[in-house]
Amino acid sequence: MAREFLLPDIGEGLTEAEIVRWLVPEGGRVEADQPVVEVETDKAVVEIPSPYAGTVLRHGGVEGETIRVGSVLVVIGDDGEIATSTDSTSEREPTHAAPPIVGSLSEEAEVLSPVGAGERTKEVKALPIVRKLAREMGVDLGQVRGSGPEGRVTREDVLAAAPSATEAAAQAEESTPQEGTASPSEDSGEDERRPLSRLRRTIASNMARSWAEIPHVTTFDEVDATRLVEIRSALSARHEVKLPMEALVIKAVIPALEAFPDFNATLDGDDLIVHGAHHIGIAVDTPDGLLVAVVRDAAALAVLDIASEVRRLGEGARERSLAPDELTGQTFTVSNIGAVGGGQGTPIVPYGTTAILSVGRAQEKVVVSNGDLAIAPIMPLSLSYDHRVIDGAQGRRFMALVIENLEEPALFLAG
Length: 415
Description:
Helices cover about 30% and strands about 25% of the residues. It is α+β, with helices and mostly antiparallel strands. The protein folds into 2 domains: about 5-110, CATH 2.40.50.100; about 200-415, Chloramphenicol acetyltransferase-like domain (Chloramphenicol Acetyltransferase). A hairpin with a 2-residue loop joins β10 and β11. The termini are far apart.
């Protein structure tokens, strides 16, 4: 008996998802709880398991197609059951695939046409970021031998297969207009219209909503990071692992959130929901846009545990492999713009929270210490908060406690 499995809401408020890759073909056997398809949501690429065991009679869409929550994702029948005309993908009305999204990760895996007559179609396995790199470098993934797990093509494989600098220069020279001819781009001045990726559309929507509904106030300050840098170096050397700056900043922020709980809250109409747990979001710069991954129950973790979680979440965000619950639910956010050379800024408060702290790059500056001039690494801080909930005086008190902790890490590491 054929059973329809509808696309579930696998995230908070998910309305649609894009089919990235079918893991079980039509006519193939699938076990209960076995992943049957990869889909891309607003933030992540996730595998969806089948709730039934049996034969896949029909896919609910083709790779690259966007389907809505509640629509048929896959039809599964009993073992040996044959698809009827109404179940067959090839005989149903053609679907209208969503237009391609430039720079998106929706093309993680595709079936390439055979190279020659009689050859079998080759399925290429590659992460979205690797597929994007291949397109940019003009590499045909069908011709690349993957060195990763199960033959997956890696970034290094693409770089090794890319044309050399000499070949690239020769190609560029061949395409350069001859003397006396005008460059098409110089003459035409034509604009390029590029559809935003699914992730970029989500970022745009969230930023616009936060900016439109939250009255922002941003306060700026600086920290003498001498002790912080020393502690970070000592811990990294002792444990033979690079300690992310975010790990120390999160530990320094926790006591301030406990002292000023309005910064760890959500405004819901006329009520303020003060959260008992501290789920700290960390902003991650990925090739396809900014993602916020969440360190759960950060107050209960030691600094080395937070460091391990920050590294794991950062890698997963860049590979688009995090689960939806690892990308939602933060109660406060830390953005380390210093990692990309940034200083002070005006960070936008994520919707559903009341504050965000941005940490800039520490740079050596002349400071006055005990009446004498000295050189010290000075780290810029930018704290944005919801002025409906937090007044300026409370914002300054919160910042003062964070600064005190950052300037003497023993104050929070001893806790």
